[in-house]
Sequence to fold (506 residues):
Amino acid sequence: MDLNLEFQTPEQEEFFYSKARNNCFSGGFGNGKSWVGCARQFMMLASFPGYVSLIGREFYSDLRDTTMKTFFKICPEEFILGHNVNAGITLLKNGSRILWKHLDAFNEQSMRGLEINSALLDQAEEIQESVFLILDSRIGRWDQALIPVPLLAAHKEKTGEAWPLTPLNKPRVPNFLDILVNPDTTYHWVYKKFHPKSPIKEPGYFWIHSKTVDKLNDPATIAQMLKRDPEWIAKYYEGEWGTSSAQIHYMDKASIIDLTHDEAKEFLSTIRNKAALYRSFDHGEISPSCCLWVAFYKGVYIFYREYYAPNLVISDHRRNIADLSEGETYMGNYSDPSMFKKSTQKNGAFWTVADEYMTADIKQPPIYWEPADNNEFATRNRISELLAKGDEYRNPVTGVSPAPGIFFIKKSSEHNLGCSHAVDQLLAQRREKLGEESGQTVFSDERDENVPDHAYDPIRYFVAMHSKGYVIQKKNIPVRSFKAFEKYDMARRVVRHKSNNYTARW
Fold:
């Protein structure tokens, strides 16, 4: 079938013909990424009978009003056998299928049953990393797509080799996971996995970038875009990744402690013996549960260990956290106060999630959590203050000052129990967008609920409970003690001295 595709930019053409399994087209608004993403999927669906593609966005209205309309501009009407809006399925006459999915309603269980060849995720910056990872594991699971005989012959003639086969000796169709994305912060999972400047870029992942293409847009629209504030232009016209005024917290690189295996072993031994230790926890029923270990040492907070696990029952969490805590004594164990709400009944009495972590009915070691202060706004400000460098703080390893008041031991191949999700989610938190006024984006004080916070909340809980550091409380002098009488007698003599205006002799 001749698609008669006409590429408007070199970036479109390069993305269209990419043979990488995982591909990302990033950049400004109106750079043609949605068109080429849909064209690439249609090429697969039209070329290989029985091919199955998933095309998804976070919200159904966006999927219906933008991505779906773009696809049907490319796909000839006579090629469509049927389109069921309610079921989210389009059937093509060659037996290929498109599954339209709005991913905000998706759960991991339903995604695990998918058998697809390829997927296209539009506006991937809105999609959680867990959705991407599950879909990534489903690519190529559908094995009923066919390779037309002319394609097999053409490949043999061009390369001199037979068409690649699956482990079951069937011709293998091309399988891809493509994402289309607008820029976000450098802590977003898309940046980390795909961007060429990311220190942890996945090998083999393809990345292409394009700013807004003027010729693809109405001149008046371009003129309006260029009237916006500089941050908006940098992000949505130039397509640059970086910080945003919506971002709640900013972190200096000095807050990250990167240690070798031997350094980590020695440093952890030091803080275990000399620091005040704490644990902070956020329990998730279907979302991940996260426990962070914190040390108050030399006047600063050090998050030195992270446990982050989805899809486990409480007995598993209890065992895993206990194993990681072996040999340590804690001055506090803080958790989400919602864990203490009595919402279920057990043995004739109301029961809480916190009770489940203590009950002897579960064989694993009990954990006695205490409810943390959940004052969002006050705690958020305190975290930002601790992340800023101050003369009152010193780096606990190097002794350098000024320094931040919060540190994270980095997770690495040398120290795989360090903090990863905590840092990422701390820096990913952003304010909720309200709209725009006079070309300026307006944000509320509320935190965006679409940003994962399972590892951010334990930071909040701990800081809320220790916003002024570890302070030794002074004991009051007993009223009838000799010390109290001595203090009273001294005060009486001072008063008499002042009233008589003479120097007392003691």
Q: What stands out?
A: The first strand starts at residue 22 and ends at 27. Confidence is low (pLDDT under 50) at residues 468-473, 501-506. The radius of gyration is 30 Å. The longest helix spans residues 482-500.
